User: Fold this.
Amino acid sequence: MTHTPRVAIVTGGLGGIGRAICRQLAERGVQVVAADLAADADRLEAFATDMAGLPVTTLAVDVGEAAACASAVAEVERRHGRLDILVNAAGITRDSTLRKMSTEQWDDVLRINLDSAFHLCRAAVDGMLARGFGRIVNISSVSGQTGNFGQTNYAAAKAGLHGLTMSLAREVAAKGVTVNSLSPGYVETPMTAKMPPEVLARTVASVPVGRVGQPDDIARAVVFLTADDAGYITGINLPVNGGLLMGF
Assistant:
């Protein structure tokens, strides 16, 4: 008997962490839809080359728009007949101290990093409940746990993601749907590449394992949380930070 492949949406799928998540899920037989802002031909071609031979397609979506999120989920369900896995990995930064932060900087980060998860979860969860299976992973951040200088907007959004995670986990647990957060520490991506070298050096020195994370470190944890046999893990926040923040 052949098993129907699971179907996943990964938002921010063309980014550093999103791309690694797409690849690792697809390598395990998941049909992956990488949802991201409309990209130029060169970026799409590079992504396609990276995913060559894997069951990965792309879908242009502005995750900050509620209607676009609903349309994306409907399109994936129409195209593949189901949506089993949702990974909310889209994220931006607009760093500034609060005293200098504009309303636009606050709103942009909350819209992309937190509102998008609400829009997509709301669109996806009915189908998951009806089918009796679902895996939702929200990519939070160590910044949401500790705060970070110049990131009141980002930290608020990432902490908010876990509040959403715990509440939704309670609402859907009885029907085979799990909802979890994953909080990366510092990961080598285009976003962190903008950090000044001396700041990066200080950061590495503060990580017990002695290096920044790689996107594959995060993707491995997403694969774990989205597995069919991970049904007894829900409402958690899984830190993947090299020991930067420890607690229980």
